Inverse folding.
């Protein structure tokens, strides 16, 4: 499933008259739960202006942008990778504007002066030198023809260690699964390696220093990347080939069973908030829980739920993509457009929002996600499984998904399945007051010690 706040990007292009906007621009997105700096690099060619964006706080560089327009006063552009858009007015050698993603507007001004922010407190983040061996590595996904990059950590340079591959959640993620100043996979790999377990974590395809293209890829594609990581880890002389497992977070928890089924050498899998119910059911439940947490009235939740049901039913139809888009436009225009207009949103803004939504909902990743039932893979897994969920997770509801994993185990006859609901933890396994994504960035803790201990102790039992 999609992370609620993954990455905000932007691009800027030239104005008419004498404005020279080539070079670097800086901005700061401020939203509930955190702030994100952005850096924009603008270049000019005969065909016009192009630009890429860096998100220093998330370790993501070179984000592409499209559809840049500037009429001498107002500038606009789209960011396909995150289903976003930006509009700004040129004033006093900068741009004053608004970034909008999924109908959620955030003020975003751009200027020439670099923005410096106080680094958030992340007390669990390890500091070098580490008391273990760490190495930057690359490995090949032969099936996709791409090279992925990551970090391998081992208790010592030589030995015969049990090991795990970390598989990130949805959206473009670097090897640390970096989000809002947190580096969950860095903290997790550090903890496991200090406890005698080797760890391989890697950048998603098309992210940071990994090759390939993220946009247009599906969960099935990411599963081949995880398989390549597993194969690489098994090939190393210091790794015990019979004791290599997988840890997947969120969408990574959907991928892990897929990889385990394709390779019977997988010794165990750990699902951290892994999805176990069909994509459309997951999104129906997620939308309801998030809306309720944000104070949405029950009547409005019901109405929006009915509209979402129609949208997901369209996506699940076995019809050409052009027909899916046409039907989605019909649902949005007949069901949502009148609602937005009644709330004072302009027709132009509603049209832009609908266009963005249809593009996202009809993308390869999203259509595959909505149609996929994770139980299909879970019912075939025969290796040991540990499934953990926080009871305050509003994105992957604990009870619904853990119960689905239990049912899959019963059907498969796998007796080595452990499911646990961890008290007080959110989707990122932080100790949380409400579980709302708006808290993710403001919480200093990256992963609760209770979750780290559960994972480490369980793995060590499996590899004895």
């Amino acid at each position: 499933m999609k992370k609620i706040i993954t990455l905000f990007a932007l691009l800027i292009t030239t104005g008419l008259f004498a404005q020279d906007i080539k070079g670097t621009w800086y901005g700061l997105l401020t939203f509930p739960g955190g702030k994100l700096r952005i850096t924009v690099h603008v270049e000019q060619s005969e065909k016009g202006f192009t630009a890429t964006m860096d998100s220093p706080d998330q370790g993501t560089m070179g984000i592409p942008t499209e559809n840049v327009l500037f009429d001498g006063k107002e500038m606009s552009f789209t960011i396909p990778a995150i289903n976003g858009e930006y509009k700004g007015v040129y004033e006093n050698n900068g741009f004053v504007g608004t970034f909008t993603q999924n109908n959620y507007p955030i003020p975003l001004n751009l200027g020439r002066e670099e923005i410096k922010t106080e680094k958030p407190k992340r007390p669990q983040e390890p500091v070098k030198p580490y008391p273990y061996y760490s190495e930057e590595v690359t490995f090949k996904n032969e099936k996709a023809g791409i090279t992925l990059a990551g970090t391998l950590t081992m208790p010592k340079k030589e030995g015969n260690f049990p090991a795990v591959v970390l598989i990130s959640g949805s959206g473009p993620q670097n090897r640390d699964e970096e989000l809002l100043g947190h580096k969950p996979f860095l903290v997790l790999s550090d903890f496991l390696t200090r406890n005698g377990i080797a760890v391989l974590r890697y950048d998603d395809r098309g992210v940071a220093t990994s090759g390939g293209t993220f946009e247009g890829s599906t969960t099935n594609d990411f599963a081949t990347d995880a398989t390549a990581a597993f194969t690489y880890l098994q090939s190393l002389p210091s790794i015990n080939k019979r004791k290599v497992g997988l840890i997947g977070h969120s969408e990574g928890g959907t991928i892990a069973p897929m990889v385990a089924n394709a390779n019977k050498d997988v010794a165990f899998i750990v699902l951290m908030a892994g999805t176990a119910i069909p994509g459309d059911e997951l999104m129906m439940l997620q939308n309801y829980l998030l809306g309720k947490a944000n104070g949405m009235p029950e009547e409005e939740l019901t109405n929006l739920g009915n509209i979402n049901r129609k949208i997901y039913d369209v996506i699940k139809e076995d019809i050409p993509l052009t027909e899916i888009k046409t039907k989605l436009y019909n649902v949005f225009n007949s069901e949502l457009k009148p609602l937005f207009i009644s709330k004072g949103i302009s027709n132009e803004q509603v049209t832009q929002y609908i266009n963005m939504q249809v593009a996202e909902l009809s993308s390869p990743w999203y259509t595959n996600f909505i149609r996929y039932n994770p139980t299909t893979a879970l019912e075939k897994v025969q290796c040991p499984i540990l499934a953990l969920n926080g009871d305050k997770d509003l994105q992957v509801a604990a009870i619904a998904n853990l119960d689905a994993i239990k049912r899959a185990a019963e059907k498969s006859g796998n007796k080595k399945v452990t499911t646990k609901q961890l008290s007080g933890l959110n989707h990122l396994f932080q100790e949380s007051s409400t579980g709302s994504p708006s808290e993710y960035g403001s919480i200093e803790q990256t992963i609760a010690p209770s979750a780290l201990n559960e994972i480490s102790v369980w793995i060590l039992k499996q590899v004895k």
Summary: The chain has three domains: 23-111, 133-277+373-462, 279-370. The radius of gyration is 22 Å. The chain has a mean pLDDT of 90. Residues 180 and 421 are 25 Å apart (CA to CA).
